Structure formats: structure tokens, C-alpha cells
Amino acid sequence: MTKKYTGVNYKRGICQYESKVTHFGVTYFCGWFETEAEAVKARDLCILRNGLKVRLQILKPVKK
């Protein structure tokens, strides 16, 4: 299990990282990944695609 990033957890039984984001009680599942970096990136992309008002962790927001 990782506490480095919010919404990313390591599952020892399957040796993969689970990525998800929760916003106003709705959980968006982002997938299973081999590396922590892939899981965090997928979470950030999910936030951007769905227009969620949640802080990004590795990607930088683009100013319009």
C-alpha cells in the first residue's frame, strides 16, 4: 500500500497499483497498473477528462 499519492493503492495479492478518484461521493475507477507512476498519471487524466475539481498530483493544469 502506498501513502505517497492520494487515490493510489498497491494490492499485494495481484502485485498491481489500483487507481481511483472520489468526488462528491462518486468514485471513478481509473484502472490497474504495473507502476505507481502510471496509476497516478491515469488518476490525473481521469480528473481532467471528467472536469472534477480535485487537485492534480503529477500533471500540471493548463491555464486558458
Protein model, in words:
The protein is α+β, with helices and mostly antiparallel strands and 64 residues long. The protein has a single domain (1-64), classed as AP2/ERF domain (GCC-box Binding Domain, 2-Layer Sandwich). It is built from one helix and three strands. The chain has a three-stranded antiparallel sheet with strand order 1-2-3, covered by helices on one side. Strand 2 (16-23) and strand 3 (26-33) form a beta hairpin. The chain is globular. The relative contact order is 0.21.
Number of strands: 3
What's the CATH topology name? GCC-box Binding Domain
Oligomer: single chain
Protein structure class = alpha+beta
CATH architecture grouping: 2-Layer Sandwich
Low-confidence stretches: none
Biggest sheet overview: 3 strands, antiparallel
CATH superfamily: AP2/ERF domain
Calculate Rg over CA atoms. 12 Å
The CATH class is Alpha Beta
Strand content: 25-35%
SSE topology string: EEEH
Count up the helices: 1
The helix content is: 10-25%
Overall body shape: globular
Topology readout:
Elements: E1 8-11, E2 16-23, E3 26-33, H1 36-49
Task: Sum up the structure in keywords.
alpha+beta; 64 residues; 1 helix; 22% helix; GCC-box Binding Domain
Briefly summarize what is shown.
This protein is of the alpha+beta class and 64 residues long. The chain has one helix at 36-49, and strands at 8-11, 16-23, 26-33.
